Amino acid sequence: MQNKLYIINKKLETSILIKKNHISKFVNDIANKNEKVFCILDSNIKINLNIAKQKNIKIITIKCGEKIKTFNGYKNLTEKLIRSDVNRKSALIAIGGGTLGDLTGFVAGTLLRGLNFFLIPTTLLSQVDSSVGGKNGINTIYGKNLLGTFYQPKEVLIDISVLNSLPKKEIKSGYAEIIKHALIKDYSFFCWLEKNANKVINLNKSILEKAIYKSIMIKLFYVKKDEKEFLVNKNSRAMLNFGHTIGHAIESHYNYKKFNHGEAISIGMITEAKISNYLGLLSSSELKKIIKHFKKCELKMSDKILKNKQLLKKLTKDKKNSQNNINFSLINKIGSSIFYKKLDKKKVYKILQYI
Ligand SMILES: NC(=O)c1ccc[n+]([C@@H]2O[C@H](COP(=O)([O-])OP(=O)(O)OC[C@H]3O[C@@H](n4cnc5c(N)ncnc54)[C@H](O)[C@@H]3O)[C@@H](O)[C@H]2O)c1
Ligand SMILES: [Zn+2]
């Protein structure tokens, strides 16, 4: 399968190519068109370093994980690039998961006021979600992704052959974002996933490619409508945050150690689906259906911190919220989402004790 998708709006054009065993060619093509190319490579990726056949390619290897999305991670990478004579005609290629992509995108958008940026996502999560849409950034002690830019990569290559070395726990983390896309936008995709989840998780090639393609199309729908998250309606990019208000607070509370991103947002999605049900938006039968699917896929669904006051502090630090109110992107049925503005934090605490 070879698909090429496009995001096109007034200012930008990003191409997303889905193609197997294509990394070497992709990197060399970029090297032919750019003066100097830096491949920022996740140290867990075992790809042949022959990708750097050309003299103008330099490889910088980083041991990845949420800990690189910090001031220190930003400092280390920018200083390494400056020492290696990066210039405005240089291109950065991030070859790794969402953490590497988010950090490198932020560096590419800010270093020398902007460098050419390319992405080769290597986790399922980054292939179906974080590599699409141009958001990047780092965390602060006060919360996740509080520093960042919108900076679109010129091209993204999705190559599923790299997923063979990815641990099951990380595959499931990516699956959580796939199911999120279905829950907010596409009931028939949810039904298809009910039948095919095991095949996606076990990397059945054609089923996996279809799940990735469908997922990207849903994410693109929102990015095209609302690149910078300005809208406050059902087409807002904020709908993609379903499960993330709670999920980000959990990740931040545990300092990104107890759960990976997909696990935290799985707990977030179930909790926010329960909040949707509590508020009379989502029916109990649909809630049950969602819980059944999460159980079948052995996705995380709960954690003791949900009932703890400390979580509220983290929730109000989320960049979408004000001091006393919390915004949620909720679902009103499977495949349909709505923006729920300004839920008072005392009420949120009460709901969390009840559900
Ligand atoms: N920018 C966005 O729009 C957006 C969207 C969703 C998530 N995110 C961010 O993405 C991050 C999570 O990304 P992630 O789940 O890819 O985590 P990650 O980058 O930490 O990767 C997970 C683990 O897998 C390893 N790995 C990566 N590719 C591998 C491969 N092919 N084989 C073996 N091991 C491999 C990594 O070294 C790491 O240990 C979070 O910080 C989240 O906030 C961003
Ligand atoms: Zn996410």
Poorly predicted runs of 5 or more residues: none
The proportion of residues forming helix, as a percent range, comes to: 40-55%
Order of helices and strands: EEHEEHEHEHEEEHHHHHHHEEH
Q: Please outline the major beta sheet.
A: 7 strands, mixed
Q: How many structural units, i.e. domains?
A: 2
Strand order of the largest sheet: 1-2-9-6-5-3-4
Look up the CATH topology of the largest domain: Dehydroquinate synthase-like, alpha domain
Mean pLDDT: 93
Q: Would you report the number of β strands?
A: 11
The CATH architecture classification of the largest domain is Up-down Bundle
What do you see in this structure?
The structure is a single chain. By secondary structure, this protein is an alpha/beta fold. It folds into 2 domains: 162 residues, Rossmann fold, CATH 3.40.50; 187 residues, Up-down Bundle (Dehydroquinate synthase-like, alpha domain), CATH 1.20.1090. It is built from 12 helices and 11 strands. The strands form 3 sheets. It has a 7-stranded mixed β-sheet, sandwiched between helices. A two-stranded antiparallel sheet has the order 7-8. The protein has a two-stranded antiparallel sheet with strand order 10-11. The protein is globular. Bound molecules: nicotinamide-adenine-dinucleotide and zinc ion. Nicotinamide-adenine-dinucleotide (NAD) binds next to helix 3, helix 4 and helix 5. Zinc ion (ZN) binds next to helix 9.
